[in-house]
Design a protein that fits this description.
Layout: H1 2-17, E1 24-25, E2 33-44, E3 52-53, E4 62-63, E5 69-80, E6 85-89, E7 94-101, E8 104-111, E9 113-118, E10 127-131, E11 134-138, E12 142-148, E13 151-157, E14 159-164, E15 167-172, E16 175-180, E17 183-188, H2 196-218, E18 230-234, E19 239-243, E20 248-250, E21 256-258, H3 264-267
Parallel strand pairs: 8-10
Antiparallel strand pairs: 1-18, 2-3, 2-4, 2-5, 5-6, 5-7, 6-9, 7-8, 9-12, 10-11, 11-14, 12-13, 13-16, 14-15, 16-17, 18-19, 20-21
Length: 352
């Protein structure tokens, strides 16, 4: 058992640190690319017909067209929306893509549950979600959940503008809207209560952060040349990661995404001139999680409720994060990088 654990750590470290082929930049200019299809995931054409099973390959990306429906059975899916925003679907869920434009990405949740993890949401990009007879527009980076039946919207972090029954309401973190026969009712919820979808989304956020390090390191586009954040396909992991437009971006789950210019601090943290108390990344953090079991490129590996847990990186006391200037939509920069540029892979325990 210990040997298998050691081999897993070594394999994860080799994937992150290997100096192979560079990441593929700018893989999608529209919303709706399927990044992960784990288990039974189907694409239904706008004109009807038999559902087609989605099986992404390393050399072939699956894009959802406007009007098409993505549906899960005993499986989960991750879809790229605007740069820096991920839509993740639970089992037995479906949504229709109404618009795939980055300036106006629109989805209609038809069944089940979806969770949107928006690590960065630039001013020119917009995301709108329809649930039942209400429309919800994301105005900030954050974490949002949408359930179809019973119809419900929860804001863990961030803010949405809810448009329902001829009225508008700003819904902020810790608040929810629930539909009933009498209409929509606003209230509070306990953000600490989670389920399998939330925990899987958190693991995926950690894996994306791991893939970001090598992708940013090998990208041939420096942050000064970026006009917006971009998706980058990481061949080592078999899925796309995100490279922010500037500085360092923090996901709602606490993981950090770097640009080509700020990722250098992960490998060579700034050292104080005369001992402790210097400026730089915290020595106590690491990129945790093996990142291997929840991707499906090259084959499906879905197991209900299973997955390798990962904990969010944290900055040590008193450290100041590099790259905080210019970061948008993600919260604080810095932290989360192990001293000396090492990256931890933790198998953790299996669970929902």
């Amino acid at each position: 058992m210990r040997l298998a654990h050691s081999m897993l750590i070594a394999a994860a470290a080799a994937v992150v640190l290997a100096p192979g082929a560079p990441a593929q930049n700018a893989i999608s200019a529209k919303a709706g690319m399927v990044n992960v299809a784990d288990g039974d995931v189907y694409l239904i054409d706008a004109k009807g017909g038999e559902p087609k099973k989605v099986e992404p390959k390393l050399t072939e990306f699956v894009d959802i067209k406007e009007g098409q429906i993505l549906k899960t059975g005993e499986g989960r899916a991750e879809v790229l929306l605007t740069p820096g925003s991920f839509l993740r679907m639970a089992e037995e869920s479906s949504f229709k893509l109404l618009s795939n434009r980055l300036t106006d990405a629109r989805v209609d949740v038809l069944s089940g549950s979806v969770l949107i993890d928006a690590a960065e949401l630039l001013d020119e990009n917009h995301i709108t979600v329809l649930v039942k007879d209400a429309t919800f527009t994301l105005t900030k980076a954050g974490l949002y959940r949408f359930d179809a039946e019973p119809a419900r919207v929860r804001v863990y972090l961030g803010e949405v503008v809810a448009d329902y029954n001829g009225q508008k309401m700003n819904l902020k973190g810790g608040k929810e809207l629930v539909a009933s026969s009498g209409g929509w009712t606003a209230g509070k919820f306990d953000a600490k209560e989670t389920d399998a979808l939330y925990r899987w989304a958190k693991r995926r956020s950690g894996y994306i952060a791991m893939a970001n390090v090598s992708a940013a390191r090998q990208s041939n586009i420096q942050s000064g040349g970026l006009r917006s954040g971009m998706w980058a396909f990481n061949p080592y992991f078999g899925f796309a990661t995100y490279i922010p437009w500037a500085g360092t971006c923090r996901s709602p789950f606490g993981y950090y995404y770097y640009t080509p210019s700020t990722v250098i601090a992960v490998y060579y943290p700034p050292q104080p001139a005369f001992g402790g108390g210097g400026r730089g990344f915290g020595s106590g953090g690491s990129f945790a999680g093996s990142g291997m079991s929840d991707r499906s490129a090259g084959g499906s590996s879905y197991s209900p409720g299973a997955g390798i847990s990962a904990s969010a990186p944290s900055a040590s006391s008193g450290s100041m994060g590099a790259g905080s200037s210019g970061s948008r939509g993600g919260g604080d920069a810095g932290g989360g990088a192990a001293a000396g540029g090492s990256h931890g892979a933790s198998s953790g325990g299996r669970g929902n």
